Amino acid sequence: xxxxxxxxxxxxxxxxxxxxxxxxxxxxxxxxxxxxxxxxxxxxxxxxxxxxxxxxxxxxxxxxxxxxxxxxxxxxxxxxxxxxxxxxxxxxxxxxxxxxxxxxxxxxxxxxx
Length: 113
Description:
By secondary structure, this protein is mainly beta. The chain has 1 helix and 13 strands; from the N terminus they run E-E-E-H-E-E-E-E-E-E-E-E-E-E. The protein has one helix at 35-44, and strands at residues 16-18, 21-23, 30-32, 46-47, 53-54, 60-62, 66-67, 74-75, 80-81, 85-86, 93-97, 101-105, 110-112.
């Protein structure tokens, strides 16, 4: 009988319609009705530490000192990385850092510049 979607946060089936959005009474999550059609786009997008969507060619800034594995080099906070490329996997950013060379970064350690 209930044709409403389950909650994307807790998978509860007790969601209800509240005008322009759906609401989950169990966890308090609210989401847009149009989120159903955009759900595949949102799950595949890569987001930075602040939640901004990242795209190929963007510039990002490193927000934490990162040790380079197998070397004594460190990528310092505030290092700007230009023209990133998004890839699949745990380290979802492929880039080239001046003075260090090509490497892969996790999106959780960068913010959009």
